[in-house]
What we know:
CATH superfamily of the largest domain: Histidine kinase-like ATPase, C-terminal domain
Shape: elongated
Mean pLDDT: 90
Low-confidence stretches: none
Bound molecules: adenosine-5'-diphosphate, magnesium ion
Strand content: 15-25%
Helix content: 25-40%
Strand order of the largest sheet: 1-6-5-4-7-3-2-8-9
CATH class of the largest domain: Alpha Beta
Number of domains: 4
Amino acid sequence: MADVKTEKMGFEAEVSRLLHMMVHSVYSEREIFLRELISNASDACDKLRYEAQSNTALMEDGTDFGITITADKKAKTITVADNGIGMNRDDLISHLGTIARSGTAKFMDQLTGDSKKDMQLIGQFGIGFYSVFMVADKVVVTTKRAGESEAWAWESGGEGTYEISPAQKDGRGTEICLHLKDDADEYLDQFRLRKVVTTYSDHIAVPITLAAVGGDDKDKGAEEPQVVNEGSAIWTRPKSEITDDQYKEFYHHVGHAFDEPALTLHYKAEGMQEYTVLLFVPTQQPMDLFDPARKGKVKLYVKRVFITEDSEDLLPGWLRFVRGVVDSQDLPLNISREMLQNNPTLQRMSKAITKKVLAEFEKLADKDEEKFLALWGQFGAVLKEGLYEDFERREQLLKLARFRSTGTDGWTSLADYVARMKDKQSAIYYVTGPDEKSVARSPQLEGFKAKGIEVLLLSDAVDDFWLQMVTDFDGKPFKSITRGASDLKDIAGEDKDADKKDKATEGAMTTLITMMKQVLGDKIKDVRPSDRLTETAACLVADDSGMDMHLERILKAHNQIDAVTAKVLEINPSHALIRKLADKAGDKGAVDALSDDVWLILDQAKILEGDPLEDPAAFARRLSAAMEKGLV
Ligand code: ADP
Ligand code: MG
């Protein structure tokens, strides 16, 4: 019979979907539920230790932290208990009824319904607490928040709803009791349980005790409660005593991550400042990598006490994918999160650590290019934010940066680009756009390709921005191929046939251009002959004094500017269509006769840029008329 005070609630839709998937999929590594529970218990102890700095009353139940795992063979339950911060009713609802983690929406979007693929995604995203439903068909959480008098119970079978009711509990903390599914009783076995705990949780800095009750065999020793982990913070131990697996498991815990760490950086700084660093660079992008908040996730400890994991001053935003721990000896223990802002000790530490991380990337680029490029592929777009905002690191980052380019199938560094530059080529050419494919199709590339002049293909949103701040590399200015006049004709290239092509005469071109300007009026800034086109009749470029086109489009899309400015229309004098128009442009009544064609040329150029047409109906009418003429 249900308690009258029991409230039944529905999981957030996202949680329900996730649970459904988990309950009905066969995940080979379901033992990770224990890692998740221990990880949460350890976090709960960290949180209390921090809060108690300013409110010692919270510790009135005792200052020793511990996690106890009890297997009950008769009842077929496993209970994970901690004496950490605990949860009150509101906490239970918001923490165990929703997924508050950033990146959830993106994660949900990526779910396919194909359970194999989805489980892999779960592996990347992590499901934390909800993983208990892989092994349990009923879970009861009994918990009391430190400093509060009421305890609460949360109970669910993992199918859509959960119940919350008042409960009895001695002392603060959380007890999570799993009623195991029939096919999960392997976890009742002491030996198995111990193996799982040591595999995943040896690095946990709180002692973990294994206990068993209700066993049939009076096999002593196994029944005695035993502490099974090292119980010391992993970063305080000497490197030589830590295995790769232990590093990896700690990375999973501290980074809420599930991939392999691509780089592990563990060192102790001594001298002016004393601190220990254990940082990881992930192999895969975390789900929240492109959150506008750009928050870092490195945990700051002071003398082994957890302080915060979202200090914006610990590492720069462009290193926000780095995970791990920094433990300072110098900061005061009672430092509040607010006091960390603009703290000079923290700033000095941040500078030194940033330098170390960058040095690590440089080392990798030197000795294992393949691995470095894989990392660049994942995090290059974020590192490039440093080009924009971190003046001090700009030179270093420019050397590290890799780009797609017309000159190579893979990635190129700027130094390699410069080494391949043609005679008399003075600039590093680039084109920016929304994605690799459309950038590679830019008509403005044609003339450069024909001459064998390399152009960097940039398609990260950040590219247009850092290019505003960075003027050159190695004395060579960056130059957009979609902005300003082209200096192609001055550069020695490989295009030997260029001068043999039929071209409209200069005089005819002048007449045509005058006529086109008359037709198009203020819809364009200028019309001029192009030397960057070989195949296409016309393209748009930004005016020399104007903003580059892709940047302008981004700003417009974000309402940063009201309207886009008029562009320069460049026409290709060797294109058959332009030649014909040039022939006729001097005829009497040419403006009327050719105006439809002129508008069509402008609209085509806009379509090639992916720009919306001002008057699609007029475009369709003109195109139909032109086709009709052609058919006669
Ligand atoms: P995450 O650990 O990534 O935040 P989880 O699904 O593992 O996600 O846990 C969700 C939240 O539930 C935690 O952030 C925490 O606030 C709360 N929680 C879970 N277990 C405990 C616990 N043992 N003690 C206190 N709070 C807990
Ligand atoms: Mg967790």
